[in-house]
Amino acid sequence: MKNYAYNEITLMQYIFLINGAQVGTGVLSLPRVLADKAGTDGWIAILIGWIFSMMANILIVKMVERYPSATLYEILIRLFGKIIGKAVVLVYMMYFAFFACSTLVNACLYIKSWFLPKTPDYIILLLFSIPTFLVARNGIRILGRYSELSFYLVMWIPLFFLIPLRDGNWLHFLPLLKEGWKPVLSAVPTTTFSFLGFEVAFFLYPFLKKKQYAVLGVAIANTITMLFYLFTTMVCFAYFSPEGILEYNQPVLNLVKLIEFRFLERFDMILLAHYLIVVSTAWIPWVYFSVFCSSKLLGKQDHSSHVVVLLLIFIGIIFWHQPTWNESEKWQIMIVKGGLLLAYVAPPFLWVYSWIFEKYRRRVNT
């Protein structure tokens, strides 16, 4: 009997969980950041970042498929022993919690800036915490259903970017590689933050019903994320001038702000409200996997109380500290550094180490 039969997820849920964990608030400012580093050639950096994320994600799957019924916690204990294994799990737990907190803070700042300027940050976070608890307290299956449903609910959003694209100028992209490859390569680390989230495959694999399609699933999830980033970035580059796009912190929101209908003036408000559904599919998995690690470390089966404690910690941080946009950007830089280690360096290391470990173990047993 499978260890996680009750929480098994389908391939579609697997895909949308990974894609949801990747797509957050970063895309709203991504075109401006890429333009600042590489000009209108910044879209090439997205393709390079996609290749790196695909390689790292495939290595994750190849590593965990050696232990098809084990979670990352059990794999690390097997490979490194209880002390080192639990220490690594603790690092992942803190990384997931910090990522969730950073994403929630970004969402709060956006809501406060565009909708509720006089509402305290901790009140907004408290409102976010209610649906977060209702979803995260359940298992992977409920989380997968939520991610899949959310994806279908927001599929219409990219279609509206075609409206301002009619006034875009494709000459902004010419000539290609205006200043060579150096600016493009300098923008690649920026895209790594946007693709972070695929490391949840470490935890999702034992719950996947048809494990033979795991590599296909991560390939589709990363490709969906890449196409979304590429489309929004190219639309912004085509509409705004190469110098003009640098004047906006969130050019994606400024772009949709231009969309007006006879019966609706502020379409950007509706778009941002619906985009919160997309962002929630990023922070809720991070909350869940953080408390999943904590419950494993403490030997608890029910993680509901851990969700409550973690969300209360987040609310307390916001209440006492009240982070600003600059502090949020500093947190993102810290996450990028941690993500480079845990998402891009750890998979190849664990893949090679597990291969050597299992080969040595078989030789000793024989």
From TrEMBL:
Keywords: Germination, Membrane, Transmembrane, Transmembrane helix, Transport. It comes from the Bacteria. The chain crosses the membrane at residues 12-30, 42-62, 83-116, 122-140, 149-165, 185-208, 215-240, 272-292, 304-321, 333-353. It is a multi-pass membrane protein. Its main location: membrane. One of its GO terms (cellular component) is membrane. It is found in: Membrane. One of its GO terms (biological process) is spore germination. InterPro entries: Spore_GerAB. Signal peptide: none annotated. Belongs to the amino acid-polyamine-organocation (APC) superfamily. Spore germination protein (SGP) (TC 2.A.3.9) family. This is Endospore germination permease.
